[in-house]
Amino acid sequence: MATILDGKAINQQIIDELQPRIQHLAQTRRPPGLVVILVGNDPGSEIYVGNKVRTCRALGMLSEEIRLPATASTSELLAHIETLNQRPDVDGILVQMPLPKQIDSRAVLLAIRPDKDVDGFHPFNVGQLVANAPAPRPCTPAGIMEMLRRYDISPSGKEAVIVGRSDIVGKPMALLLLHQHATVTICHSKTPDLPAVCRRAGILVAAIGRAGMITADYIKPGAVVIDVGMNRIDNRADAERIAQGTPSKLAAFEKNGTVLVGDVLPAAMAELSSAYTPVPGGVGPLTIAMLMANTVQSAELRLA
Ligand code: NDP
């Protein structure tokens, strides 16, 4: 019987451990502060930003949201970042991605002070990650490492296969697993015979953005499967294919007309893996916990 890697439970553990550190900072110096910048009104981004701000406030941290119109220019955004870089009460600056096309995303990432870059996307922090030196780590892959650690799943000596090579998930995930002594393969849309490569994996990470693409054919029996994908399905054919063997997913679709699914077929993970992350309730809650952790650590370093 596969272990379900419970992201909500790990999120709660991480938050519980952060709470006294936040209280200590608030009592002795000041609360940690995070400012989130949202450009435009993409509904998905609005939900993510809302969750981040709410979580911060519930923890007693300073949390502000800056909203700019979808027509905002690069220089407008850079001016806000410059102000936040200078503010002594701000420890973390997060610009919600993706940004509208007219904005130079790279210039924006470069403008954030590396020691306030709680997403870990600044090129300096990426370099630190490559060198395995201290720096804020990208939240989603860092959360996955934290989950593996707390479930006593050691990557050391295992073959890890990551499907997806994005800067925010696939690449940093590969480096973090490498630093923990896994033998790492990164796959993408041009990888030949993807199922055969995935079947080598003792740890399989799917970060693709394609609903239910990873089927039983891709999973070695006994593998640990981490499903990063978050895909909202609104057509019945996909919902029925992906929900096979998981009636709760089909029921959710029947009720709402949409359902959130990962990149891996849930029934295949449950049947073949030794442990897996469900969607929702797996990787998602860890991302936000690690954002809080990065912000608290940034405050501790600044106020030490
Ligand atoms: P990107 O779109 O940036 O990257 C997707 C990657 O998947 C690319 O490297 C792409 O390859 C690869 N890919 C696409 N199609 C195939 C295919 N048919 N075969 C093999 N590889 C393929 O996505 P992200 O990394 O930003 O996100 C991935 C997923 O994770 C999304 O569903 C996203 O919503 C989710 N996500 C979830 C988070 C969470 O907190 N749970 C946080 C961040 C993301 P190529 O490079 O060749 O195009």
Q: Helix count, per DSSP?
A: 12
Number of domains: 2
Mean pLDDT: 97
Major sheet strand order: 1-11-8-7-5-6
Structural class: alpha/beta
Unreliable residue runs: none
Give helix % range: 40-55%
Our Rg estimate from Cα atoms comes to 20 Å
Keywords:
single chain; about 300 residues; Rossmann fold; 6-stranded parallel β-sheet; 11 strands; about 45% helix; about 15% strand; binds NADPH dihydro-nicotinamide-adenine-dinucleotide phosphate
Q: How would you sum up this structure, described in words?
A:
- There is one protein chain.
- Helix 9 packs antiparallel against helix 10 (247-256).
- A six-stranded parallel β-sheet has the order 1-11-8-7-5-6.
- The protein has 304 residues and is an alpha/beta fold.
- The model has no long low-confidence stretch (mean pLDDT 97).
- The protein has two domains: 29-116, 3-Layer(aba) Sandwich (Rossmann fold), CATH 3.40.50; 139-285, NAD(P)-binding Rossmann-like Domain (Rossmann fold), CATH 3.40.50.
- It contains twelve helices and eleven strands.
- It is globular, with a radius of gyration of 20 Å.
- The termini are far apart.
- NADPH dihydro-nicotinamide-adenine-dinucleotide phosphate (NDP) binds at residues 140, 163-166, 168-170, 187-191, 194, 207-210, 228-231, 283-284, 287.
